User: What shape does this take?
Amino acid sequence: MNATVWITIAGLALTTAAIKAFGPVVFGGRDLPRALARVIPMLAPALLTALVVTETVGGSGRSIVIDARTGGLAVAAVAIVLRAPLIVVVLSAAVATALLRALG
Amino acid sequence: MSVPPAETAEPPAGTVAQGLRIGIPYAMASFLLGLSFGVLARPVLGALATIVMSIIVFAGSAQFAALAVLSAGGGALPAIIAGSLLNLRFIPMGIAIAASLDHRAVGRAMRGQALVDASWALANRGDGSFDIALLLGSTLAQYPAWVLGTIAGVLAGGVITDPGALGLDSIFPAFFLALLAVELKRPGARLVCALAVVITFALIPIAPPGVPIIAAALAALAGLRR
Assistant: This one.
């Protein structure tokens, strides 16, 4: 039980809540400018793409690492194209990654 | 709870119950992610702190980032900053849902707490508005799964020592790819995706973790071309 751990947890809980509240509180209750209504739906593909990339090739520190996760993602992509249910997509990615690691 | 009226007949307003149902597959993935967090975090944070963190923070990528800093012997401040950088994407996400929230400031702040990636993407109607009931329902499915997954991971720590050996670190990207696949059906989304790939790859080697993700939000400006 050390203080660093608990300070981190409390601090991250507060900042997370504040960050999640920011947009709704500051920008809420107003109509959107027309241009923004065309940009906002495109935030999802933009942010999700960035999450896929960083979670697949992000290394510790500022590095790009191609490893078993890339193979796992390729298998996930095939499962998605085959219209597999989400749980099958994520499990096949995990199994493929685990197998690649076991073999490599 | 008020659901914003659908402007045309096509996007019907969802209910919280519908959101819960749609959220179930995402909740299963959250459980597995929580499991890997529990396994990795227990030796560093201790069992109680690991579970409390998932209960009160409820932000997977931020928790993993803060854990990585603490595991490396870093202090509380760098850990909070690392986690917050990954959370910064909730600012554009929150701005995106803001116009769909017709509540007072406190009510809007509370509903903002339901922002998680999957729920937000599911609630995207594609016309600039968001289905808030669907967002709340889907998060209500994922929150207990995340917490229970963490508890299961803490308990399973003796059996599973290396979640990497089980490939559990591939669950996050596969999960996001499945959400992305749905979004790519929207007109113009492929160009945005391609731009986001370029921005993210360019920034990973030079910017702190989290920054490439929010910078990639700029790719959404390509939506103005239509």
Notes: Chain B touches chain A through 110 residues (CB under 8 Å). The two ends of chain B are 34 Å apart (CA to CA). The longest helix of chain B spans residues 16-45.
